[in-house]
Design a protein that fits this description.
two-stranded antiparallel sheet, alpha+beta, 13 strands, elongated, 11-stranded antiparallel sheet, 3 domains, 459 residues
Amino acid sequence: SIYFKKAFSEKWARKENEFFISNQPNISPTVFEILINYIYLGTFSVDNNKISLVDILIASDEIELLEVYRQLEKRLLENELAWKFPKDFITLYHYRDRFNNLYEVILELVCNKPEIIFNSKEFFKIEEDCLIQLLKCNNIKLEEIEIWDYLIKWGIKNTDSISNDNLIKWTSMDFRELEKTLHNCIPYIRFSQMFPQVFNIIRKQYKSILPKDLVDDVLQYFSDPNSKPLLKNLPLRVSVYPLNSKIINANDAAIVASWIDKKKGIPYRLKDIPIKFELIYRASHEGFNTNKFHECCDNKGPTVVIIKVRNSGEIIGGYNSLDWRSVKYKGSHYNRFYIDHKCKTSNSFIFSLFSSTNGVNPVLSRVTSKKEAIIWCKDKGPCFGLQDLWINNNSMFGRSKQKYYKKKIINRETFEIEDYEVFQIIDKRFSPYKLINRVGSVLSIPVLGPVLGPFFGPF
């Protein structure tokens, strides 16, 4: 081959006892033997599962065996199982300019399954610039707090002065050395995508390693999400758990889910949310039509209403632990459907997720008079309390006058609505089919196929 003519020339190799000695530091003896067999025998096979196809591909490119290179490239592009993680990722990172197509493919695989890198023993050996490349990715499927936790672990392992991970036992020198290790990495953490409570804990634990300007930037964002960052204007990462909403994100849903479950302290991690938010109504799509609201939302069980206030960025809403539906009422057809029906519950609440007056702190306002917790009326939208949070008939205006819920959620009694959404709340911990199967087994009643019932329907 042209390559070997060059390799065995006087410029590339030396001759000893009739043998040419050529130094190829980028090619291991095992890989070289595989390629030599191909040259002499015309066959190519990899029996040793420990050998990386990426190593062979790089070597075949180097010695100009284009046919082998094309076969290996095709196999790697078409078969995810052909890769060896984390080795191949680290290798291709160093050759990313030369094999950019393959590098982009493996980077996408790592972003979709980050545990193959972050949970590996080799993670702590990754060089800083390679780690920063991962931190820059906007689509890596990890929560931001998980990324921070992995970064801290990497930093501890790569800081010689730190002998344990117990912060209480650390000296000021340990924190200074950790700051040096992580100095270039920390700016790529999207702290603004964490819960404020979580960031406050991090701020207390690692105050000495977080740049003051960065902390001020994050706190400013929490108090006003529309504020412009002073430092790196990093785009938000794509949510690991996307939510079908134009108003809230998965973090907001986690806060509401925690309130529904009366969970104290830090809200649910996204991966631990036991509740599914199923969008069943969006006002802007339905023309703010009240009849459509009832058509989509009545008799659907517990729901959450999310309202975006026009011109303020405020997000308010309420949780109805009951159905939106009429109650049995003796009287005319008109009275039965067009008067305000008071529905009793102690589990409903209204809330503010972001308010220009409350800033960083979401407001939870639980019901104080359970007899008037929910109001149902055919010619009104969702109503909580006696105007604690109401949306009137076919209206883009809402009312909020604190009366039967504990706290005020907005600082004015009337407001214009930019949009509102209603989500059916589905508890993922509960399955009617599992329940009936369990009851059936206890009573020795066989349950075969789908079960039909007047309430549940087929499932």
